[in-house]
């Protein structure tokens, strides 16, 4: 049985992440769940610690940022000698029902990266406004154009990394926000690692507020420009 760690960054996700973890424990009972909480004012960390789940570890940081949280979680997972590292959102937009098959594909197919993809046959998005769909599609098109990525969904955070791919992702030291997703893909495909997409239905959050702000979108596009210049 492969050693699997699941990294979930959180910020004010108390109502969502408890439900998510309960489902993960049922589907992958032997996996390690690593929560990286950015000191949530709503008490996310305290609620999770009170669950008393043996394979659940909660780390609290005094900083913000999806990319930096993912790097922090990946480092911790690698210290645990994890063979495969899953990353996913805390807001229930990433249905854990896909976890067994995504990890199985990574393990048996010896893939370095399995992407939970919204943009291949069988994948899709539920309850997103048109503006979010346009931004997401445009971002993926632009990244594919400058990177020649073979993947259709390069911005999805629902992923399974091998140790080799995770170590490459850690090289994205300046990608502290959503740009971490494309930076890690860029480094992985440039290293000719084995990648594949698996279809998922992305469900827009029902509880809480999205963390995606205009400033995050602008930073993302600025990072795209940097990548295009470096390539």
TrEMBL record:
Segments traversing the membrane: none
Instruction: List UniProt keywords, sorted A-Z.
Output: Glycosyltransferase, Transferase
Superkingdom in the source lineage? Archaea
The protein's matches in Gene3D superfamilies, at most eight in alphabetical order, are given as: Spore Coat Polysaccharide Biosynthesis Protein SpsA, Chain A (3.90.550.10)
| Pfam families according to UniProt | Glycos_transf_2
The family database entries (InterPro entries) matched by this protein are listed as:
DPM1-like, Glyco_trans_2-like, Nucleotide-diphossugar_trans
Q: Name one GO cellular component term.
A: membrane
MF-aspect GO terms:
dolichyl-phosphate beta-D-mannosyltransferase activity
Occurrences of domain Glycosyltransferase 2-like (ranges):
5-165
CDD domains, A to Z: DPM1_like
| GO biological process annotation, one example | protein O-linked glycosylation via mannose
Xref: PANTHER family:
DOLICHOL-PHOSPHATE MANNOSYLTRANSFERASE SUBUNIT 1
Provide the family line: Belongs to the glycosyltransferase 2 family.
* Name of the protein described by the UniProt record: Dolichol-phosphate mannosyltransferase
Species of provenance? Saccharolobus caldissimus
């Amino acid at each position: 049985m492969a050693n699997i760690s699941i990294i979930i960054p959180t910020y004010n996700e108390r109502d969502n992440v408890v439900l998510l973890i309960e489902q993960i424990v049922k589907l992958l009972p032997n996996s390690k769940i690593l929560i990286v909480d950015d000191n949530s004012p709503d008490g996310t960390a305290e609620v999770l610690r009170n669950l008393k789940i043996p394979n659940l570890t909660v780390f609290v940081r005094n900083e913000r940022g999806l990319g930096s949280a993912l790097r922090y979680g990946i480092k911790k997972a690698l210290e645990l000698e994890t063979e495969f590292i899953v990353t996913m959102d805390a807001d229930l937009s990433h249905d854990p029902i896909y976890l067994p098959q995504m990890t199985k594909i990574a393990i048996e197919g010896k893939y370095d990266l399995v992407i939970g993809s919204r943009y291949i046959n069988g994948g899709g998005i539920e309850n997103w406004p048109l503006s979010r769909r346009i931004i997401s599609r445009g971002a993926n098109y632009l990244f594919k154009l400058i990177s020649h990525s073979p993947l259709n969904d390069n911005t999805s955070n629902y992923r399974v990394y091998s140790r080799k791919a995770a170590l490459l992702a850690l090289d994205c030291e300046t990608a502290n926000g959503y740009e971490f997703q494309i930076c890690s893909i860029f480094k992985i495909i440039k290293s000719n690692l084995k990648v594949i997409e698996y279809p998922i239905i992305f469900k827009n959050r029902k509880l809480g507020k999205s963390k995606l702000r205009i400033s995050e979108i602008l930073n993302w596009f600025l990072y795209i420009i940097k990548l295009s210049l470096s390539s």
